[in-house]
Amino acid sequence: MSTHTVTLMPIGDVAKFLKSLIPANIPKEYALKPVFESVASDEKIRDGVIAFRDFLYLLFDRLVAEGSLYAKPPNKPGSMTDYPFLHRLTNLLVEIGYHGKLTDGGDSLLVTDIPLSNSFIDEKGKKKSPKISASGLVEVLRFLSLCGFVFTDTDLEDKKIAVSDSQPLKATYPRNPALLTGLKALSIADMELRAERRYWNDCYLLRCDYRLLRADSSDIFDELEDFLRPLPEEVQEFAKTLHKRYTEKGLTCFAMMRVDNNYFYVKVAGGKKELSLQDKYQKRLFAFSNTVRFGYSLFVRSKKTEKYKDTIAAFAPSLQKKIAIGYGCYRQLGRTRCTGDCQGIRLPLDKTILDISDDIIKWLDCEV
């Protein structure tokens, strides 16, 4: 019987990976969506986003240095990055930003309710425990205080902290108060504007995705360039060549951002029903991916290889072998552990891919 054992990555390495997902370049000028008019001026929000970005750098550095004191591993991790502390951290930040009220000067957020720290009744009428426990709430507040937050009139030595109208949580960030405005806007975007369904335990806010705030749609090619920037220049150019070639051939590129990054390419057929982003992802032909497990990769989900065997026979032997093995669930492939093959045939997106770049283009041309 096959087993799938997950080896948890050290929290410091997870923090370094998450830090790498922060956009390398956040523009100084861009128009914002109307929903943010009630928060602050466009200029103050843009300044706040930059301040929040700088805070995230500090937060991840703190996680590298002291994360093991806070981020305890679960008994049965579901993934390499499955630290409940990270889930509580990102969601408490969203709760503070989304439910908090900015004071007139914008130098503090007043929070009277943290819904995820409350018990609730599910759709079947059953009472459920809070998503963030009392001890978990205190733990995250203590960590945020190490990163520069100040919670006025709140004793972080208490085992339990109640937040209500009569006992509000007042959050400030003396190092740069503009952060609070940025947090407010980014939290609204995370709760209301993201294309994907919001799962309470994902780390979306921690990537500081300012693009959700923009009034105009971000150019997907600009996003892809930002995604590729850490790679060697020749590899970046090859990836951009694939993007341009196959978007010109009718494929559409979509971005899916969770803990990992995916830019995937799919042929979108017209129809009465608008496909969700997840539906489009399931129909992808190939994707550029950056994951904590594999780093940068090109995944290809070929489906027509039986129709062009002669073409494949001329490919480099290493690529022929990968195509012959195929992809699918590790159980279907007769393996004893998960190797990520359900995503497609994986090729490392590094300089080694340049040796087979022409073969890859011929391969994808046959599939398209």
Structure report:
It contains eleven helices and eleven strands. The protein is an alpha+beta fold. It folds into two domains: 11-213, no CATH class; 220-367, no CATH class. The strands form three sheets. A five-stranded antiparallel β-sheet has the order 7-8-9-10-11. A four-stranded antiparallel β-sheet has the order 1-2-6-5, with helices on one face. It is elongated. The two termini are 38 Å apart. The model has no long low-confidence stretch (mean pLDDT 88).
Total domain modules: 2
Q: Tell me about the biggest sheet?
A: 5 strands, antiparallel
Helix percentage: 25-40%
What overall form do the CA principal axes indicate?
elongated
Radius of gyration: 23 Å
Say what oligomer this is: single chain
- Low-confidence stretches at least 5 residues in length (pLDDT < 50)? none
Q: What is the strand tally? A: 11
By DSSP (H or I, 4+ residues per run), the number of helices equals 11
| H/E element sequence | HHHEEEEHEEHHHEEHEEHHEH
Q: Span from first to last CA?
A: 38 Å
Strand order of the largest sheet: 7-8-9-10-11
Approximately what portion of the residues adopt beta-strand conformation?
Answer: 5-15%
In terms of structural class, how would the helical and strand content be classed? alpha+beta
What is the typical, i.e. mean, pLDDT?
Answer: 88
